[in-house]
Amino acid sequence: MADKRNHIEMVSLPAYAHAAPGFVVSGLCELGEDFFECNTAPHRHDFYTIYWIKKGKLVHTIDTVTHEVKKNTLFFLAPGQVHKMTFSEKVEGYMIAFQDAFMCLKDQSQVSGINSGLFFNNQFSSVITLDSEQEKDFEALVIMMMKELALREPDYETAVHGLLRYFLVLASRIKGNSVIITPEQHVAHNSSIFLRFKNLIEEKYKELKNVSDYADLLHIKPVLLNEISKQLSGITAGEHIRNRIILEAQRYLFNTDLSAKEIAYDLGFDDPHYFSRFFKKYTNQSPSEFKELSRTGV
């Protein structure tokens, strides 16, 4: 009998970094056989990851969504997302990985929402397919990043930072206006509050489940937090909290053998029956139904 899967492994950037731990850019084949073997099991990263699949075939599951990968596909993964890749043949492409400190994506005052929107959006991830002309531009940027890291000439980190910024801006343009945060739509103050709210959810969704709890931490009224959330994302603050809890439950139901009761306690629910009702109310499936359907659909 196979061992019970009761956790999702967290992978740190040093596992891939042979030199500078804050930033990695590499051809997939250069990462070695361990990379391909490790990626077949569900796991999380504590860093931002961009995969560019140039050639080959694979199935990429991000959280509970499975993608049949075509050539020239870009995947953007934020820290904490659960993913795995099943390779039907050896693929060619690149991996770009970096710590938050390298780009400060969560700091609205340091970087525009154009960049962070690729990682933080209502779909929780971004998938982009490049055409032949776009491929040339992205390839040139990746090659320049690799050259800067290899030569390490004065101010190479500044150069790599700028190249990555440009890479993300180009990707945002292709992705479309849905991930672009314009000054007309989002005043700086409200954007800052909303990003702090999203960061607090990541830190506290297992213990805090009410809008009022987060509003207190942000020193604003719950009604204002809901207004800001609807203005900047189209959904209420309560929906953001519920979506994050449900996403984590789905991750565990999809990737582990934990029971609904075990998952309920892990997510901070005192009553597993209430958790099951909560899950079904917002997904139209019980936890057991979701697990069964998701497993048979893969």
TrEMBL record:
Organism listed in the record: Chitinophaga defluvii
Coiled-coil region list: none
InterPro entries: AraC-bd, Homeodomain-like_sf, HTH-like, HTH_AraC, RmlC-like_jellyroll, Tscrpt_reg_AraC-type_HTH
Keyword match Chloroplast: no
SUPFAM superfamilies per record: Homeodomain-like, Regulatory protein AraC
Key words, A-Z: DNA-binding, Transcription, Transcription regulation
PROSITE patterns linked to this entry: HTH_ARAC_FAMILY_2
Domain HTH araC/xylS-type: 195-293
This protein's name: Helix-turn-helix domain-containing protein
Pfam families found in the cross-reference section: AraC_binding, HTH_18
